[in-house]
Each structure stands twice: as structure tokens, then as C-alpha cells.
Amino acid sequence: MSVLNIKTDKNGTELTITLGGRLDTNTSPELEEIVESSFDGMEKVYFDMADLAYISSAGLRVLLTALQIMEDQTGDASNMILRNVGVEIMDVFEITGFIDDLTIEE
Description:
It is built from 3 helices and 5 strands, in the order E-E-H-E-H-E-H-E. By secondary structure, the chain is an alpha/beta fold. It has a 5-stranded mixed beta sheet with strand order 1-2-3-4-5. A hairpin with a 2-residue loop joins strand 1 and strand 2 (14-23).
């Protein structure tokens, strides 16, 4: 069974979403719901992926949705920033070409 731990923290117009576990077909709807309901009025959104062990194509789709929402809201998709991306997740971003679209902090 897949488990995804999600913690959100709003600070003014900044939102941090901390992810842990597996972001896959079974768990991505939960994150998608948070993305669609929590981004309103946010100028910066951070995804902390330090404890994210796995991401599937369903998880990538949710990140693309989040990216599109940020671009529509702020005019700049780079206002969505991924932090603490592990090697395995980074490999997925590189293989899929997502690395070109995402803003990733070292």
C-alpha cells in the first residue's frame, strides 16, 4: 500500500508543501486536491521533497498542474520551487525532461 505524507505551511503569500513517502497513482489525488485548493493568493510555493522516496507519472502530472496554476496566477512558473530533491527523484526529472520546466533549488 502506498503512503504519502503531506504537510502544508502557509506564511503570508508563501506556501510550503512537504512530501514524504510515495507520490504515485494511489496517492496523487490527495496532493492534487491540496494543490487545487491551497494555491489561491500564493505568490511563492515550495515543495520540500527531502523525504519523497518515489514519484510516478501520476505524481509528475500533479506537479505539472501545480506549475500551470502558478504560471496562471503569478505569470511566472518559476515561483514554484522544489527543494531537497533526492537523487532518485532528480533522475526521474532528468529522464522525463521535467528538469527543463521545474525550478529546483540545490
